[in-house]
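User: Predict the structure for this protein chain, please.
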Amino acid sequence: MTMSKQKMEGLISINEEIIRIKKTEPVLIRPAEETKNGFYFLSNLDQNVATIIQTFYCFKAEDENKKSSETISEVIKEALAKVLVHYYPLAGSLTISSEGKLIVKCTNKGVPFVEAFADCEIEALGDITVPDPLTLGKLVYTVSGAESILEMPLLTAQVTRFKCGGFVLGMTINHCMVDGITAMEFVNSWAETARGLPFTVPPFLDRSILRSRQPPKIEFTHNEFKEINDVSNMATLFQEEQILYRSFFFDPEKLTHLKKMAMEDGTIKSCTSFTALTALVWRARSKALKMKPDQQTKLLFAVDGRSKLNPPLPKGYFGNGIVLTCCLCTAGELIEKPLSFAVQLVQEAINLVNDNYIRSVIDYFEVTRLRPSLAATVLITTWTRLDFDTTDFGWGQPTQSGCVTLPEKEVVLFLSHGRGKKCMNLLLGLPVSAMKIFEELMQV
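Assistant: Here is the predicted structure, written as structure tokens:
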């Protein structure tokens, strides 16, 4: 696994400062021990989320008691080989089963690993918590020329070292392998391995516990799959205008004010920060995109089904334990009615998710093989419960972490901010003209 000749990968322009990064050719990191061959089953909850998620973690290496920065790449590589013994499907490849579904072919092919070198100190990156695919994309390794998701590795890793001894770990992972909770457990297990520690949460690999029922039993409407006509011609707007990415910060005071706004007409008696912010974003995005009053608009958001199943999913379940739940109404209703109307729809969608609902989702895909439609839709995903900022490979906790880009233009990401997780950031991308309106509507 020796590195081949270095090549110039290009330049990053962050905060108007040019950062030069050289990358080595990728090497394949295989599990350190023999693992199972054959096919690895993916559940129906894994089938609809086969998209590549790109994340990064920034580390400083200032403390003399911490490991030498010269050993960073070797330590992380060695730990990756060891952790892949337990998470061996990530070293395989994606293919299509005889049933026409995604399945993993476990061949121990390995995980591409790239070592990179920056010509500056890590402080030159500045604040990189807002998605920026053109610049932050240089901090992760992606396969060029791949024509489909089947040609992309399930996992890649890149370590970019800076002059100061700091480094960035960039990672890509296929969402069909992990949801946010599983990704966090994998990264933390990898970090624990690097520090010579046992896993806090060992993985439970058997996804067959989420097989569809025989015969399938569809008990709900599942509007999340409903096709919506784009009568407002939003698709053209996204094609013709530049997409801007922005971050919006909500401290406890602002979140409290938002919840009071949602409850002021007496329709609802209580609400969480999540439901109030989700409702606000849905309404504001619909206004910003100038949806026509008769335009149907859909809100999708992920609910963790682990504890809602009967019995609950085992601790450390390796796979997607989330389901999408749905709100649907016209843009006219959404915008003209008070904020409490949208909050109430969100609350009802959350309350819908129980064991029967999740089993019905699984069976719905088994029968229809449909994927959720995203026309006139906003998809909220929340990482507020995830502790990526505690990940420690031996050089302390990350000074920054985040995503390189959002996987779809319809996605809005909620992140916790600061210690105690009492503040929230929301990240999204919109066409330039729509972003200007959205920014004004966020001044609550």
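The first strand starts at residue 7 and ends at 14.
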